[in-house]
Amino acid sequence: MALRSASEFPSSPEPEALEATYSECRAALVSANRSRGVLKAQSDRRGVVIAELQRELGELAADLADEAHTKTRLHAMNAKLGAVIRELEDTGDAMVGLIDESERQSGFWLVEMFRQLIAQARRWRQVKARAVALAGEAADPGNGPAQINEQP
Fold it and tell me: How many CA atoms does the CB half-sphere of 22 hold within 13 Å?
């Protein structure tokens, strides 16, 4: 039955039309109540869907925040690792240069070159210790960033 407006029913029906008007009003009320029940059920279903979407959106936001944090952490770790690798290369190159130069030297200069070589070897060990600390940080991300000095 199509919904009918209250204005379609007479406000003061004739006494002989009272029973028919009552039946029509009752049928319209029953129809309106059914429609209201259907609308409420649809509204309730939408509410459940909206709540589920909000929950999923919250989870997605948390996942995205976690991923952003992880990417930031990895980027910082890559930058530190790059600096350590460059320093290892520089230290290794300096050691090779000192060894090459020591082959052409003799006497006091040779002693000075060994002193410089020992200093470079110490620097090499410090840089390697920083690399090990970075590896430990990468292996155990739950403990937060390890304290790694930028300069030896």
Answer: 6
Q: Tell me the H-state helices in the chain.
A: 18-104, 108-139
| pLDDT averaged over 10-residue windows placed end to end, the chain, 152 residues | 74 84 87 92 95 96 95 90 90 87 76 85 89 81 49 43
The Cα 48–Cα 36 span in angstroms is: 18
Closest CA to 126 of 100, 152, 151: 152
d(CA 61, CA 147): 30
- In angstroms, the CA 14 to CA 16 distance is 6
Q: Give the model's pLDDT for residue 50.
A: 97
Q: Please state, in angstroms and rounded to a whole number, the distance separating the CA atoms of residues 79 and 127.
A: 15
C-alpha to C-alpha distance for 102 and 111, rounded to whole angstroms: 9
> For residue 148, what pLDDT is reported?
42
CA dist., res. 77 & res. 133, Å (int) = 11
Please report the pLDDT score of residue 11 as a whole number. 79
> Cβ neighbours of residue 77 under 8 Å, at least 6 residues apart?
134, 137, 138
Q: Side chain identity at 63, as an amino acid letter? A: D
